[in-house]
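--- STAGE predict ---
source: upstream dedup step, 1 unique chain passed
mode: sequence only
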Amino acid sequence: MDKLMDNPWFIKILALVLAVLLYSSVPHAGSKFTDVNVPSEETSATIKNMPVKVYYDTKNLVVSGIPNTVNVTIKGPITHVQSARALRNFEVYVDLTKAKIGKQKIKIKVRNLSDKLSATIKPSSVNVSVQEKISKEYKVSAEFNSNLVDEGYIAGTPSIEPKRVKITGAKNLMDRIAYVKAVVDGKNKLKETTTTEATVQVLDKNLNKLDVVVEPGTVKVTIPVKSNSKTVPIDLVKKGTPPSGITIDSITLDTKEAVITGSEDVLKNTESVRVEVDVSKISDSTTLNLPVIIPNGITKVSPQMVKATVVVNQQGEKTVSGIPIKITGLADQYKAEINDPSNATVNLSINGPSGSVDDVGPGDFNVFIDLSNLTEGSHNVNIQVEGPPNVKWKADQSTAKVTIINNA
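--- STAGE serialize ---
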């Protein structure tokens, strides 16, 4: 090697070889690299809730039984799988453009998916029903819970705008329509006429909701609400007879009117309510809590209870004796003498409230006989008594025998 290295030709040839190798290793314009095939890593992924697009004659047909979404499992190179999962740039569809009316099993397909990927759909096929599309107008009825109306108020027949709606759906569903209702919901109690929007529900005879299209889907419902109450007087009714020696001076109620609730016809024919006081059980002044009694058909009364104040007097009795009999109406030319009673006096049996009876005496009574238009002779004349208004009396003799003498 030392000899070779000392040879100049050997050095020149070696330099040329190295130059050629260096030149060949530098890329030049127009030259091509050789592709190196490196095997890619395979993977799979499941794309959930992939929407299913349906192709069919939407103007004349109705299709049911196709799920809104499906799960698609894709398999292939990891980069392609990741791209498809992120972009979802493919379509899951069902082609019913040539389908016939009736029930049939249809395969769910995928398109616009990279040819380097394979797809598995779950479910892969479905049973669908293709029906003729029908449109028809129906009258809408309103429905609301009576509990929405506040106490003391009554709801009339609701009105709906618009009164009819257009319903479109498959023939088999349209044939099942039994009720078309606008159901009014709410939380606040109704005290006045109210207008609200309500969703139209289409139901079969078993109240199952039908999958049809309603136009418009909501309607305006007006519920007329008015007061169904009335103010009437409370009548006081005494029952029974007070015990012996008891006089009822007065009975007063702390409330004289009541507010009643009921149907319009019942309110129209009800003029009053009543409170009954059984005086047969009262022996002294007292205050009673008594119910307000309402006629049949009245659903509510306010107040339900009232206070009745009863004032009573104990009865007393006594005899007032020796009250002189006075003579009135006698003409001047006559003179009269009372023959019977011989002492020209009467005795009075007095009864009434004990306080009043105790206070009266002979001077509180005027006992007399009226001799007007009588001539001389003997006469039987009625004895008349005037006394206090708050007691009763009875004389021990009702007539007096009188002799009239002419003084002329």
